[in-house]
Design goal:
There is one protein chain. By secondary structure, this protein is an alpha/beta fold. It has 16 helices and 30 strands. Strands 10-11-14-18-19-20-21-22 form an eight-stranded parallel beta barrel. The longest helix is centred in the C-terminal third of the chain and has 18 residues. The radius of gyration is 27 Å and the shape is elongated.
Length: 634
Amino acid sequence: MDETLAKWLYLFNRGDDNQSFRRFGAHRVDSGRWQFLVWAPHAKAVAIVGEFSDWQPAALKPVGETGCWLGEHAGAVGQLYKVQVTTHTGEIVEKIDPFAFAFEKKPGTAAKLTDLPQHAWQDTAWLTQRKNHPSYDRPLNIYELHLGSFKRHDDGSYITYREAINEVLPYVKKLGYTHLELMPLMEHLLDASWGYQLMGYFAPTSRFGPPEDFLAFIDAAHQLGLGVIMDWVPGHFIRNTDTLAQFDGTPTFEYADPHRADNVRWGTWNFDLGKAQVQIFLLSSAMFWLDWCHLDGLRVDAVSNMLYMDYDAGKEHDRNRFGGRENLEGTAFLKRLNTQVFAAHPDVLMIAEESSDYPKVSAPIDTGGLGFNYKWNMGWMNDTLKYFSTDPYARQAHIDQLTFSWVYMQNEQFILPFSHDEVVHGKKSLMHKMPGDRYNQFANLRTMAVWHMTFPGKKLLFMGSEWGQFLEWRDWSQLEWVDLNDPMNEKMQTFTTVLNHLYQATPALWQEDFQAHGINITIGDRSDVIAYERRARADKDRLIVVLNLLPEQRDNFIVPVPRAGTYEIVLNTESARFGGTWTHLQRRLRTRGKLERGQPDSVAVVLPAMGALLIKPLTEKTQGAGSMEVKRDD
């Protein structure tokens, strides 16, 4: 055996080669020949079948006792192939190449002879900026996107990666987002799985074009100043028998115990996260997307399913060898994942979609944490939607659905998600969840958006929610772009854009998200009004947030402020520009010279019905300007 190959396979079987995508699968050795390396430890024989062999088997040879099979064959770029496995029982089955970089379009599952995708990257400035500016103290506002249903051609066909450069990126940038989060674009068969039941852990889906075009899309985003995160699914995989399942005729990627292997809830197979070769397969996948494809981060899907033995249906009483609920190999894998990712890329984002109260998900590993940058705050999201979906006069007794989140808001480094999961399967769109007539639905939606954007934590919003799409998300057709012909939807889109850009320009809304200093709650004991102050590190950078949660205007409402002087209302959700009724807006405010709720001073405002105000102190140069007359046009 070649000494270098022996070293690679030794490291692979130990679980120590997170660049295994450079060795396994099909790799060109010269202009007309390809080397194939396959892991199938219990197979009786392994061959490659493809267009280049007229689909006749070309046998691979076992490589010592490594469980791997190796061989060469002539072939041309783009030709299709599969792995033919003879199991220990003599059954002959055809499987995918787990390490393939490209596949044919569904419903086929054959891999394509493809080199590692190449691209002449032009994103050095972006990567340098990413390295020099940690995410915790900069704005992070994510637009979640399902590429297959963002926009489509008139005939219903998908737009391509290349078309998405012009169709997606300028739109998202103009809206004021800092990052895109792509629902999985790794190869998958079932559209209805939205990409969460994967088969190609190293292959951008062929639905939208070749791998090189995917890289061009990432590069174009970076050149425009947008980061790109992608959802990644290391916990479970598609059941189809010609993919990873029972790969060599025995449980290979999945647990040997059928009870543990079976993911009842999602109809998939659970990866055996305790097996060294499976760990390195998944770690190599993560490194492929971050190293080779320049992604800015991964949102790790279904982390709870990897943390707990009893998370799935019918497994409520499953326990580990110590009698606890924790999936010991799952937690060990997640720590190892984050350790290796950050060792190579300390500036990327690792985000956990985790819905339980598991402690320290976003804490450093050396302090007992899992090592993620961020965790989705599912409790905040659920309570917020429950509250704002209730009729205003029925929800006054439930103000704790908002205020309780203050108790745990700094337990983790949170992202506040209004994701695809909340606007599908009969849950209604965000706008449709809001109570009242159409006018009041939008008023509620704008106020909830201010709560979202000003609460401590980074932000995420699913596509279509920015203009208040009425229909819930449908993965089989494009967004309801026709909505923007309606002035109310167009004004909601304007509001989202203004709010997003205000967020980016206001350090008080992101610089101290995870520090106690970052928020000072000034009115938190009422059932109808909430007020708080967001703070940046610099004392002068502050923003006062006031939310009126009832559809009743409040004249001469007293708002506590941190110091005497002149203040400016920088956003009023009831502005006619945003779909409200106010055409003459109160702007400048002079403090009253009176203490209020323990704060040094206060201002009097007209608080719009079911509305919110954002107020900031003016600099010394503009102090002395008087108040403006307040009028409301009904």
